[in-house]
Design brief:
This protein has no helices and six strands. It is mainly β and 81 residues long.
Length: 81
């Protein structure tokens, strides 16, 4: 498979939270890898995850995200900031 990332990814196992709908909706996730430009997030299901949201990591870092690809349990996002 051809590598399309612009930066080398780092493996991760961090807790995260997707926040959308002006803070009224949240979904827990696990960050499996991360770069300066984006991340792979793992969920129980991705059905209710919107295409744009805020990602809050366990260390307090926040990113505005746009979904670039999705499967039933995984989402690849780019960081908008």
């Amino acid at each position: 498979m051809e590598e399309r990332r612009k930066a080398t990814r780092s493996r991760a196992l961090k807790a995260g939270r997707v926040v959308s709908n002006n803070g009224y909706s949240t979904h827990n996730c696990i960050v499996r890898n991360i770069t300066a430009q984006g991340a792979k997030l793992v969920f129980e299901t991705t059905i209710d995850i919107p295409d744009q949201f805020q990602l809050r990591l366990e260390d307090g870092v926040q990113h505005a995200c746009t979904v670039r690809w999705r499967t039933m349990k995984d989402i690849g996002v780019s960081f908008d900031s």
